[in-house]
Amino acid sequence: MSISIFPTLIHYAPLGTTKLIKELKKEAYQIRDYDKEGQKWCKTNYPGGYTSYQTLSSLHTFSSTFETLEKSIRKAVKSFSKKLQYDMRDKEFFMTDCWVNIMPKSVTHPMHLHPLSTISGTYYVSTPKGTSSITFEDPRLPFYMAQPPRPFRYSITPKAGNLVLFESWLRHEVAANQAKEDRISISFNYHWR
Questions:
Q1: Which fold has domain 16-140+152-159+176-181?
Q2: pTM of the model as a whole
């Protein structure tokens, strides 16, 4: 008999409507064009791409479109937290930040995690043919000893309108976008109180 202990769970499922996706795509470009400070930061720190993480990272608090998205994500986070077996009696999750990512061809997002949050995720707005995957790293990697070779990464090729959720400590990356068109996503973090 084999027993699975301490599994690493990832939620990946459709969320939202075609109308919401169109509105988010339109607003993503409006935010990028408006955010001159963010564009300047990205030239140095995110070459070729745009992220509002450093400048406009609370989009759910001032855009009704992003607020609508947050309400749907919150329900998915609540369901996901039950599968993670979190004890949430008298507690609730809340979105701490939410930002836009626009990745033209060849733009990458290196391996990272999301400190000071509990559940993180991404909602995919535009995933043209050839778009890059999100890749997760086995969290046990630093503890492997005398291990025969085996896969230590897992990739999901995203689809527009889908949501991915994961625990914030799980390291992940996005390889160079191979699509001719922009890969657009909205990333976010949740914490609890």
A1: Jelly Rolls (2.60.120)
A2: 0.94
